[in-house]
Design the sequence.
């Protein structure tokens, strides 16, 4: 069965940066085993599967190893695929997800994602990272660990042993620090946990659901410019809205075609 398929690079204006996501537009839901097999074959950090629904679009996200509850860049990618490639004329699309409704609105700055805020709670550094990383200033946990440092160079310069991060009992680990560049508020990197099949994610929208409330409180501002300092890199405008976080970014289409299964 042919399935319309796109590779969309999210949180970027250029095809050689940002976070690539696969987007599959479905007419019916196949078995979960097939969805997982497609995601594994694609090899993107996430493949999104979307199907039209009376109240919007049902949306699910799969890494090469598992289904996840929340993914920002693949949501942005799906909105771009629908609006730029699939003829969705309305300026807003509503996605129905495991994390509740997520609205994405087209704007002059790209797309605005209305995501849940996930501040997490203060906790200890996971045992798997003891002795491997510098001692963080603070640690928080939601579905991911957030480790805060005061040294941007340390976060940027870390040469990760991905097997160490795979020993952490969480979706993944975020490292973050304030940015030296006055045009940016904070930088971060994200390393995948044991079930994701992801080593380092290029640009992680869901991580900024944790990062935004943290840095908003620390820096005393509700609008923040963020850089994810992976090899591909990406930039986001983050707005703290209490129980919600607004993430703004651009996207580009790299590939359009179909899967033949």
Sequence:
């Amino acid at each position: 069965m042919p399935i319309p398929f796109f590779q969309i690079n999210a949180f970027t204006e250029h095809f050689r940066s940002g976070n690539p996501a696969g987007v599959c537009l479905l007419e019916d839901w196949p078995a979960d085993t097939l969805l997982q097999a497609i995601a594994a074959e694609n090899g993107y950090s996430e493949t999104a599967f979307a199907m039209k629904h009376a109240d919007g679009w049902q949306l699910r996200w799969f890494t090469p190893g598992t289904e996840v509850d929340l993914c920002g860049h693949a949501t942005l990618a799906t909105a771009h695929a629908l609006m730029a490639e699939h003829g969705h004329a309305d300026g807003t699309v509503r996605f129905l997800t495991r994390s509740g409704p997520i609205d994405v609105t087209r704007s002059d700055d790209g797309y605005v994602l209305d995501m849940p805020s996930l501040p997490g709670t203060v906790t200890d550094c996971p045992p798997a990272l003891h002795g491997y990383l510098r001692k963080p200033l603070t640690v928080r946990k939601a579905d991911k660990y957030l480790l805060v440092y005061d040294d941007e160079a340390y976060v940027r310069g870390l040469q990760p042993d991905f097997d160490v991060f795979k020993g952490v009992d969480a979706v993944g680990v975020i490292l973050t620090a304030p940015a030296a560049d006055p045009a940016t508020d904070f930088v971060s990197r994200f390393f995948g946990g044991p079930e994701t099949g992801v080593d380092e994610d290029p640009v992680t929208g869901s991580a900024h659901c944790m990062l935004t409330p943290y840095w908003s409180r620390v820096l005393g501002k509700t609008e923040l410019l963020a850089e994810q300092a992976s090899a591909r890199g990406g930039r986001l405008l983050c707005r703290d809205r209490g129980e919600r976080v607004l993430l703004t970014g651009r996207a580009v289409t790299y590939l359009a075609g179909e899967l033949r299964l």
In short: The chain has a mean pLDDT of 97.
